[in-house]
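Schema walk-through. Below, the input block comes first and the output block second. Nothing else is stored per chain. Lengths vary across the set, and this one has 365 residues.
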Amino acid sequence: MGFESGSMTFRMFLLKHRLSGDVVRGFASHAAPSLDAVKREAHVGWVTGRHLLDRHITDDTAYVGGYLRLTLVKMERKVPEALLRAECRMQELSEMKGAGEGGLKRDRRAAIRKDVAERLQPTMPPTLTAIPMVADSRAGIVYASAMAEKQVDTFIRHFDEAAGVELIPMTPEVVSLKRQQVNARDLGTTSFSPEVEDEAAGGSLGQDFLTWLWFFSEARGGEIEVAREKWAVGIEGPLVFVLEGEGAHEAILRKGSPLVSAEAKVALLNGKKLKSARLVLARGESQWGVTLDADGFAFRGFKVPKEERLDPVSRFQERMLAVSAFREAFFGLYDRFLDERRNDGSWRETRTAIHRWVSGRTAKR
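--- output ---
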């Protein structure tokens, strides 16, 4: 789903510089071509957020409720693999019958595959893949549904070409440096298990944060004040644990009660940390839910509080304001974690408390 309705999936990017006043013109000059122009080569370009064929990018169509709302779309003609294999096999059988051979050599089969693909490709309908994005110029942040690293690289490159502004993925390491001037490499490794030494502990800064967040929500009540508003955080399953090294590297707990399961306690005691979990943030009667991929701060299945019955523009604005509120609360929690993690004395006390929390956890079967 996109940013207009349903759940959202996105990463956040920092704008290295402010967007210029004529940025829309830049995107318009890099608009996607018409479908008729898509032949053998794939084409990548921008369209508006209205639909994937709307190449008419103007100030009126690019901005929605004060936000720059566009989509990067890739257009290509692809031959389905099943069809390609069937057509190739037909030609192979025909050649084998005519030549009286028992089989074709590999190079001939490769040539047949290439010829068939070139013959069929122009007759295929174009396929469209999209990366929706919203730019919040006031906050200096871009939200985009580019999740895989290849998608991220493609999105950053085409955004820079159109807007003339570099984007920086807001990973845990980038955010810690930007908000608190904390270099993740200076922190070293830390163990959340009383049975594993710090030197043997693995995990990224994002995994440390997500595991700490679980401890914070259970052992400390999970409440924080951000911008004079009280927030509460909770962790839900599915839970993905990870630890590089000997034995099982990854453990996934999905059904039942994963938070209080024996498997969760064993994973923590063995030194595994949370790589992914479902977060629930609440402010008063409003509730946000999202699955967090801790390594890259990627947000999947993001749900905002129940929306009012509004016109499309007002509804979009309300949803983006809800995303902004979540972002500030989330980074408020991250700041809290960094305040403890960067201070050796404070972290020793926190680590001791975490070890007690891990050892004393309920472990139901």
